[in-house]
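Example (one chain per record):
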Amino acid sequence: MGHPAHFADDDHDHVYTPDELAAAARRAGFRVDACYTLFPYLTRNRLLRAAGVTGSWLFQRLPYFSERGRTIMLAGVKT
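Predicted structure:
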């Protein structure tokens, strides 16, 4: 998961982890088919953030980074 300071603004009441988001979706009656992160947090440096976005396809294949992205993607079906 990215550093919490990255999300420090008035729009973020709670920064979910992938496990928390998947659990919330299940409680809401969804079957979770996939839940993963994109765009690893590589520091607040603008160039490194851009590298994380541009190289997201590579980072998704690396276990450390694939679990610590700044964006959570969840796919599910309402049951």
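Caption: The longest helix spans residues 18-27.
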